[in-house]
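User: For my dataset I need records formatted as: sequence, then structure tokens, nothing else. Please produce one.
Assistant:
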Amino acid sequence: MKFRLFAVLALAVTLLSGCGYNQIQINDEAVNASWSEVLNQYKRRADLIPNLVSVVQGYASHEKDVLTQVTEARASVAGIKATPELVNDPEAFAKFQKAQSDLGGALSRLLVVSENYPQLKADANFRDLQAQVEGTENRITVARNRYIKAVQDYNVGVRTFPNNLTAMVIGAKPKANFTVEDEKAVSTPPAIKFDAPK
């Protein structure tokens, strides 16, 4: 009798350890932690923008269109409630990704405009803010890469046997990941033209 009970317990432990439940939970926590870091870096960028716009406005007040685009893009990003549940909603995730991409584009245009103003480029506050924005963009890239890897591990875990059986039982589904906005444009090599010597 004791041997039979021991055998049943040993079989239960073996089945539970091989079902992948714990690994799914570990991978889910890794996704949540890396997502929090992505949000942290995006927030850092959003917090820098008002100061940057303010400094640029002092030198380039007639660049209203660019300044307005940056302000509107930042407001659009702020209007999206970024919660851990966002990664489980592909439509909301795509909307968040587009808003962040729009903000990044507007910010790039703002920095390009600064090239037209030598006094602005010489301003110590502007240079400091520009360096912080560039550093933050690098941090965003690193955080996004970590998130992409965490989602990959999670998605592989919930889609492969035998973990996929456990995933079906507990309702774990693959999570959304960052994508390239225009894959066709990225896959097309740039045209390079050399002018003939005169």
